[in-house]
User: Fold this.
Amino acid sequence: QVQLVESGGGLVQAGGSLRLSCAASGRTFSSYVMGWFRQAPGKEREFVAGIMWSGGRTYFADSVKGRFSISKDNEKNTVALRMNSLKPEDSAVYYCAARTLWTAAVLTREHEYDYWGQGTQVTVSS
Assistant:
């Protein structure tokens, strides 16, 4: 079992920045990939960014490339999503996810992750 807790969401003006954090506990050594997804009202959950626990390889959705960054702290078992130049369309509930099955690359589909946090709301005002 892996438990994930997100924090850092909030309200920010367009152009501003936020840093989300995901704290992982439990069998964290069994996680291979950590991902961030988001879901806006009336829309499907979508992949935002991911990072491999081993090696640190990252992958980003086209919509956030150049604006968002993802990092990890293996000792603290945390993953952070730094969001810059935020736009109103970035408003959503952001979820942290963990995949505990082996993979060689960051995966981008929701069903490929087996543990999820409760989510944290990000609202970007125009």
User: Anything to note?
Assistant: The chain is about 0% helix and 50% strand. The longest strand covers residues 18-26. The chain has a mean pLDDT of 94.
